[in-house]
Amino acid sequence: MKILHCDRAGALAIWQVVENLSTTLPDGIEIVGCRVHGFRSSLEPVAFSSRIVGSDIYLKPGRLPALSRLLEAFQFVRAFRKLLLRERPDIVHLHFAMPGILSKLVLTFPSNRKVILVSTGHELFGSMNALLRGGTRLFEFRSNAVVYVSQSVGRSYRPSFDPDESGVDREDTRHRVIYNGIDTNAIQNVVQQVNAKVPMTPSVRRPTLLSVGRLVQEKGHELVIQALPGLVRQHPDLCYVVLGEGPYRGHLLELARSLDVAQHVQLSGWIDHDQAIRQMVLADVVIMPSRSVQEGFGLALAEAMLCGTPIVASRIPVFEEVADDDSNALRFFTDGDSSSLGQTISDVLASDPNEANFDLLSQRVREKFDVQRMSQAYADLYAEVLADSQTRGR
């Protein structure tokens, strides 16, 4: 069986999930990764391991912004048709709306109607603009199966979405939830390595707050910066580190300067995944300040729940779904409220981390979000849609 995944080259979180899939799917399944260089993908393309056959589509933008998107769309449709002819996949698995909508358009052509299509919704439906929402609705009929990475995402697409215990919608079995999976064993190995090197008696160092995520407005990093003046008065050596990159970098730095906390903010860009885990283990507080407008799952939150570090997260539906409940190891603050965030961080810094129960967090991740669980769910889905297609083709 050959499965073709397609998304923008810089969609780091998507390709991380696909990489995890490639390591755990049963033998006999070949994965082709189509990285699309275009559609305003500003991040560096992810590098594939030897387990994924890489294929790239490069789009040349036009000089005029209004015509550039149309030109890129025509280029993609032509290139994707050629890719399908060359690779002849059994299943095409699409992710974000763009280039997903254009891929579905190509798959409606008579020559491609036998190709099975699986679509995974990663972002909240309302976070897309009207054009993307319309395109998603228009071509939904072409999907043999529609997957959502959380119940929150599912209900944003379908208010009546009602999954059973296995995650399948009781009303329309084409729709289901499959939670994103992370390699819990690999992360816990990194956590153990870091803890083995940390001295029993903590050294005197700067208290560190850490966030992981793209530098975009939806990730809420500015809320932490807005809370820093009050926190710095209590902890003069406090440092806020953000692991990520994006178009909001300049705005965040200017905001820090205007609040006179620039010396307390460090935008470190993207770093190696294991290094990011090490940073989360060593931090005093991991902060997940995402806004409710877009966040569909929160891979970084699930990873942080394995690190044994206190977490402060925005109270948004998907984070409550992932974390399940407030605890002394993970505390919520009011979404979009920097004062609530600052008070919650202050409370965490004043508490004894040894009293926090991190076992419940790590147990939930192992039970709900382990990569093996995700891979088995997708393997079952691939087999199901392939069997259904063969039955209908008889």
Automatic annotation (TrEMBL):
Pfam families: Glyco_transf_4, Glycos_transf_1. The gene is pimB_2. This is GDP-mannose-dependent alpha-(1-6)-phosphatidylinositol monomannoside mannosyltransferase. GO terms for molecular function: phosphatidylinositol alpha-mannosyltransferase activity. It comes from Novipirellula herctigrandis. The keyword Transferase applies. Gene3D superfamilies: Glycogen Phosphorylase B. It comes from the Bacteria. Residues 33-185 form the Glycosyltransferase subfamily 4-like N-terminal domain. Its EC number is 2.4.1.345. Signal peptide: none annotated. The keyword Zinc-finger does not apply. Keywords: Glycosyltransferase, Transferase. Residues 205-357 form the Glycosyl transferase family domain.
